[in-house]
């Protein structure tokens, strides 16, 4: 659980940076403004890629920039529902770019704050899942689900979460979050909302 999409994006990119400290982050100009802020906080080198007319990342420009930095791991932040145009970056086209350029060191984060809670239930909607090559996803709970408090979820592979895990003696547990302490009411509201939907 997170305080919202921005924290989820930070968690995903923090994990990416820990895996590939010398990686280059690629984000589209239509991506959420928090991504540039996060990249600066994490001291990640990033390149802004122009968007297509519909708001998707420009795949040709992405490929051109990746080719110019082939010696560096690729960290991508794709968007599932851009803020202004509601665009979805095409994961399959991105994977074709990576495969064509023989990129093996890669990490794909998806900012699904806007649409992450609806696309799984829409037929023919793009799917951003681990089995399709995604490494982490950030989703907001207060948007389409209507959770009364700002909140979110970040989903990643356990092996990646373990990379940033810290043993905290006085709580006798491991912490894998950015904020550490979180609002205990949020999981209760999330469960209430989900139970009402079911």
**Average residue pLDDT:** 85
What is the rounded distance between the termini? Answer: 20 Å
Q: Catalogue the unreliable spans.
A: none
* Broad structural category: alpha/beta
Note the topology.
Blueprint: H1 5-19, E1 24-28, H2 34-41, E2 45-49, H3 59-67, E3 74-79, H4 91-100, E4 106-111, E5 136-140, E6 152-156, H5 158-163, E7 166-168, E8 173-175, H6 185-197
Parallel strand pairs: 1-2, 1-3, 3-4, 4-5
Antiparallel strand pairs: 5-6, 7-8
Describe this structure in words.
The chain has 6 helices and 8 strands; from the N terminus they run H-E-H-E-H-E-H-E-E-E-H-E-E-H. The protein is of the alpha/beta class and 198 residues long. The protein has a single domain, classed as Type I PLP-dependent aspartate aminotransferase-like (Major domain) (Aspartate Aminotransferase, domain 2), CATH 3.40.640.10. The model has no long low-confidence stretch (mean pLDDT 85).
Provide a quick synopsis of the model.
With 198 residues, the protein is of the alpha/beta class.
What descriptive keywords fit this protein?
198 residues; 19% strand; single chain; 31% helix; Aspartate Aminotransferase, domain 2; alpha/beta; six-stranded mixed beta sheet; 6 helices
């Amino acid at each position: 659980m997170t305080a919202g999409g921005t924290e989820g994006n930070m968690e995903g990119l923090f994990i990416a940076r820990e895996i590939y400290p010398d990686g280059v982050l690629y984000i589209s100009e239509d991506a959420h403004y928090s991504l540039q802020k996060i990249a600066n906080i994490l001291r990640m080198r990033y390149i802004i890629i122009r968007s297509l007319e519909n708001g998707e990342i420009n795949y040709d420009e992405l490929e051109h920039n990746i080719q110019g930095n082939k010696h560096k791991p690729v960290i991508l932040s794709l968007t599932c529902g851009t803020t202004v145009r509601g665009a979805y970056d095409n994961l399959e086209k991105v994977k074709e770019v990576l495969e064509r350029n023989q990129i093996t060191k890669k990490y794909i984060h998806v900012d699904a704050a806007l649409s992450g809670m609806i696309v799984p239930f829409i037929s023919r909607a793009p799917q951003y899942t681990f089995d399709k090559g995604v490494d982490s996803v950030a989703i907001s709970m207060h948007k389409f689900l209507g959770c009364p408090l700002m909140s979110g979820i970040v989903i990643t592979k356990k092996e990646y979460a373990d990379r940033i895990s810290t043993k905290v003696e006085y709580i006798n547990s491991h912490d894998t979050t950015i904020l550490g302490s979180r609002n205990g009411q949020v999981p209760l509201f999330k469960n209430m909302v989900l139970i009402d939907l079911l």
